[in-house]
Amino acid sequence: MTALSAQALSARHERIARVRSRMEEEGVDALLLSHGADLPWLTGYRAMPLERLTLLVLPLTGDAHLVVPGLEAPRVSAADELFTLVPWSDAEDPVELVGSLLASTAGRPGSKPRMAVSDRAWATTLLALQRRLPDTQWIEASTVTSHIRAVKDAREVAALRMAGAAADRVASMLQNGDIPLIGRTEAEVSGHLAGLLVAEGHSQVNFAIVGSGPNGASPHHEPGARIIGAGETVVCDFGGTFSLDDDVGYCSDITRTVVTGTPSSEMVETYQVLEAAQRAGVDSARAGVAAEDVDRVTRTIIDDAGLGEFFVHRTGHGIGIEEHEDPYLVRGNHEILQPGHAFSVEPGIYRAGRFGMRLEDIVVIGGDGAPEPLNAADHSLVVVDT
Ligand code: ZN
Ligand code: ZN
Ligand code: ZN
Q1: What is the pLDDT of residues 32-66, one digit of tens each?
Q2: Which of these, 64, 173, 208, 372, could form a disulfide with 58 (CB 3.0-4.6 Å)?
Q3: Domain boundary residue among 148, 171, 187?
């Protein structure tokens, strides 16, 4: 792995400072990061999900240490800059190493030490840490990281824009008929979309859902052997990871529904409701608005058209290093949107046994508080009769 750029490093120093002030507020004595997106977000290092222990030990004050399996050490950049590398050999007990690094971490007067551990750490890791440090309080690392991570800095927004534009080019090819649909299986079309995501600059494909005809009514349909016919809706929802220079990648995620031939009047009318709901949702997503309010805006339009029972999921999810992260646009989430929040707006209408449709863009809240959609591919029900 090549070294992080000066910009990428200074972003990490800023994030660590913000994380530490949040630890202070939450009374957290040490942050312990294993697998998952928090570690690359904070250090630029993405741990492979091995059974061997990887753990960043970041105390509230004092030096940070990254405990890694010795054979992974060559993949770690940014050592010395952000943390001291502590490689362990297969003959050593890494939990013992972590325990000794935390030996001087006392709790505040009158309380036990409080450790925040990766939400995505293996259960075996946490159980071993609990046995080694019995007199300790344990909480999720997301308590410290998720609200900070949800607000993207300029570099992160730039990466999301590049990812969105790349996904958009693939969506436009789909709508232009460059990806034949009729007579092919969903799996073939899915493979074609995946190949184009990579050709357009993604380093990795995360998913390429193709749900044709009745299969479109299952929101996360697994593309299979069904052959796409004429006059059907085809829900295509795809995304991947896009990297700026050598830093950690950011995700794209877009859905366009197309129709293979003349749509029925019911399809046309249903799609009009969907498109209006999605547009109103995007327009409403402004700084100062609660995340749940965007969900209410899309849902009210679909409800008012009498189709509410067929919109079976939340309106959207945050996006960044992970495809799904905070903030979630869902009833009950009172989090106030602010500049730098990035998320999908993706209402859908699913008629079991017949057809489904979904329309999804990624939106980032700009510095002026207004929504900036990162996807611009045609929002209408495009006919693709090839
Ligand atoms: Zn989804
Ligand atoms: Zn999607
Ligand atoms: Zn999505």
Answers
A1: 999 899 999 999 999 988 899 999 999 999 999 99
A2: 64
A3: 148
0.85 exceeded by pTM? yes
CA–centroid distance, 142 to ligand 2, in Å, is: 23
- Relative to the alpha carbon of 325, which ligand is closest? 3
Domain of residue 272 covers 151-383
Give me ligand 2 centre to Cα 93, in Å.
42
- Tell me how far the alpha carbon of residue 219 lies from the centroid of ligand 2, in angstroms: 9
SS (H, E, C) the chain: CCCCCHHHHHHHHHHHHHHHHHHHHHCCCEEEECCCCHHHHHHCCCCCCCCCCCEEEEECCCCCEEEEEHHHHHHCCCECCCEEEEEECCCCCHHHHHHHHCCCCCCCCCCCCEEEECCCCCHHHHHHHHHHCCCCEEEECHHHHHHHHHECCHHHHHHHHHHHHHHHHHHHHHHCCCCCCCCCEHHHHHHHHHHHHHHCCCCEEEEEEEEEHHHHHCCCCCCCCCECCCCCEEEEEEEEEECCCCCCCEECCEEEEEECCCCCHHHHHHHHHHHHHHHHHHHHCCCCCEHHHHHHHHHHHHHHCCCHHHCCCCCEEECCCCCCEEEEECCCCCCECCCCEEEEECCEEEECCCEEEECEEEEEECCCCCEEECCCCCCCCEECCC
Residue 149 alpha carbon to ligand 1 centre in Å: 20
The answer to whether residue 333 is domain-embedded is yes
Q: Report CA(64)–ligand 3 centroid distance (Å).
A: 35
